[in-house]
Design a protein that fits this description.
Shape of chain B: flat
Order of helices and strands of chain B: HHHHHHHHHHHH
CATH architecture of chain A: Orthogonal Bundle
Oligomer: heterodimer
Structural class of chain A: mainly alpha
Largest interface: A-B, 81 and 84 residues
CATH superfamily of chain A: MetI-like
Number of domains of chain B: 2
Number of strands of chain B: 0
CATH topology of the largest domain in chain B: MetI-like fold
Distance between the termini of chain B: 45 Å
Helix content of chain B: over 70%
Number of helices of chain A: 13
CATH architecture of the largest domain in chain B: Orthogonal Bundle
Distance between the termini of chain A: 53 Å
Largest sheet of chain B: none
Helix content of chain A: over 70%
Largest sheet of chain A: 2 strands, antiparallel
Chain lengths: 289, 288
């Protein structure tokens, strides 16, 4: 009997290996290893032709920390991402409540209406705002009609922010809806019966209980926003540099290109992201207690 | 006011709320607000579609109906080539990532093994790493591999559709795993035990019981992978080489120069494709 069992165990092990190996190989080779490479690159030197020279240095990090071009890009990107996340949350939460509180037969269609932009090409959705905000576009046409005259709506940081909020809002609403849909609204009535006013009931019952949705939505919005470069290029007119713009330039377009410096920026961006998300998790779980 | 019985249904809750005069104003405000948000979400999409039919050469004003931009689009070999490339990359990436992802999901859901937590991390990391980081990392990696190949064989390789496809598979696998695992979690394992009791070997059990039952999950994962690949811009931009353009990259390059109704037309077509995919995935979910 023991041999039979051993045979079974052996077969199980082979089966597990067959299931795991392709995915493990792919993810190690085409995801983990490349990340290790840019980490190593971030400590290397660049020559005048834009080639990577294998000579260890801390210069890239020093450059990022001392030159205002790079520091400002970090602050601008972090600040814009925080702002985008907060505004998406302020818009998305009431919307998710509205969907969750709608009559049963309306919920799926309303959610579908969120899903369609969610599945639609991000670039296309951002591009659509160029048409709306253009100098001779529909908003300016309307403003001219009512006598206000044309306004420079496109190619500024306001347009970038609108594009980011528009692009990321579905990513906020979906996890929020999942959390709020599970929330038992009779608890709010119970709180009211026990003498809590609406704000107290919201802050002490509903907010903590829907916190997982808030955290998930915020992370989903914050991560792509921090590294974006398309929105600031298409709607912001590429007037100011965000992190993504600089990294993209250093890797693809700068003359000469500078992969080590770009790698250092990318590595630092990951560190910023990790630290901020950890702080955020800590803050939100403490609130729950 | 003392409530005698808890309101159970939404309708009953709303009725008590209305009779107490609590819901009216805040409820109305919430409804109006939500309608405005939906307008905000859809206005650009509607504008895009409408302005793909305008005669205006900048595509930002309505000056009459025309189909010219669609005709021009279909006669533009560059655009059509990019569209074809995009579909090829998406198809290959979907097939490979769905197979690899489903296998991984089975391993993670059905087996306990050493290093399982590390594997879990490796699977979910691509979802939380910003795409631009993944893109530059793959770019650097491909450059090193090309250098090594040149050293070893003397052959010069360039970034191509292959490099793009490899990148798309790398980020799609994680999403497929997430979707397929959900359907494996909801799976009643007693069905497999029953099949085994009735004498089916594990190969038969998988193909006759497990596979048909998790198929909606696999198809859902495949559809997600397909959409992710179609929509991807960042990895496509960094990993595609000269002459092997993909649709989002082509759109980006042209939009940066000028807005033209031709772009509105291609965007409209991409939009319709996305909507068809959403409809398909919803249909499949309903059947489940």
């Amino acid at each position: 009997m023991a041999t039979l069992q051993q045979q079974q165990q052996g077969r199980d092990r082979i089966r597990l290996a067959l299931l795991l190996t392709p995915g493990l190989l792919w993810l190690v080779l085409f995801f983990a290893l490349p990340l290790v490479i840019i980490f190593v690159y971030s400590f290397m030197t660049n020559d005048a032709l834009g080639r990577v020279v294998y000579q260890p240095t801390l210069d890239n990090y020093i450059t990022v920390f001392t030159q205002s071009l790079y520091i400002n890009a970090y602050w601008r990107s972090i600040w814009t991402s925080v702002l985008t996340t907060v505004i998406c949350l302020l818009i998305g939460y009431p919307l998710a409540v509205f969907i969750a509180r709608s009559p049963q037969q309306w919920r799926m269609p309303l959610l579908m209406l969120i899903l369609i932009p969610f599945w639609t090409n991000f670039l296309v959705r951002i591009y659509a705002w160029q048409i709306i905000l253009a100098n001779n576009g529909i908003i300016n046409g309307f403003l001219e009609l009512i006598g206000v005259g044309r306004l420079p709506l496109l190619n500024n940081e306001g347009a970038t922010l609108i594009g980011l909020i528009y692009g990321e809002l579905p990513f906020m609403v979906l996890p929020l809806y999942a959390a709020i849909d599970r929330f038992d609204f009779t608890l709010m009535e119970a709180a009211a019966d026990l003498g809590a006013n609406k704000i107290q009931a919201f802050l002490r019952i509903m907010l903590p209980m829907t916190m997982p949705g808030i955290v998930a939505g915020s992370v989903l919005v914050f991560i792509p926003t921090l590294g974006q470069f398309v929105v600031s290029e298409l709607l912001g007119g590429a007037k100011v540099d965000y992190l993504g713009n600089l990294i993209q330039r250093l890797f693809l377009r700068a003359n000469p290109i500078n992969w080590p410096l770009g790698s250092a920026m990318a590595v630092l961006m990951m560190i910023v992201l990790l630290v901020l998300i950890m702080l955020y998790f800590r803050a939100t779980t403490e609130e729950e207690r | 006011m003392i409530k005698t019985a808890p309101a159970t249904t939404t309708a009953a809750r709303m009725q008590t709320a209305f009779s107490e005069g609590r819901l009216t104003w805040s409820g109305l405000a919430l409804t109006v607000f939500s309608i405005l948000v939906y307008l905000f979400l859809y206005a650009p999409i509607i504008v895009l579609v409408v302005f793909s039919f305008t005669r205006d050469e900048f595509g930002v004003r309505w000056t009459g109906f025309t189909l010219d931009w669609y005709i021009r689009l279909f006669n533009n070999p560059r655009m059509m080539g990019a569209a074809w490339n995009t579909l090829v990359v998406a198809t290959v990436s979907t097939i490979v990532s769905t197979i690899i992802g489903t296998l991984l999901a089975m391993a993670m859901e059905r087996y306990r093994f050493r290093g399982r937590n590390a594997m879990e991390g490796l699977i979910y990391l691509p979802i939380v790493v910003p795409e631009i980081v993944m893109a530059v990392a793959l770019l650097a990696f491909s450059a090193i591999v090309f250098d090594l190949i040149k050293l070893a064989t003397g052959e010069t390789l360039r970034r191509s559709l292959t490099t793009v496809t490899i990148g798309h598979i790398a980020f799609s696998i994680s999403f497929v795993v997430v979707v397929v695992r959900t359907s494996l979690k909801n799976f009643d394992r007693r069905l497999e035990e029953a099949a085994a009791d009735l004498g089916a070997d594990s190969w038969n059990t998988f193909w006759r019981i497990t596979f048909p039952l998790i198929l909606p999950g696999i198809v859902g994962g495949a559809l997600l992978a397909f959409t992710l690949s179609l929509d991807d811009f960042i990895i496509s931009l960094f990993l595609s080489g000269p002459g092997t353009s993909l649709l989002p990259v082509e759109v980006y390059n042209r939009v940066r120069r000028a807005v033209t109704p031709e772009i509105n037309a291609i965007s409209t077509l991409m939009l319709i494709l996305s909507m068809a995919l959403v409809a398909l995935s919803q249909l499949l979910q309903r059947r489940r």
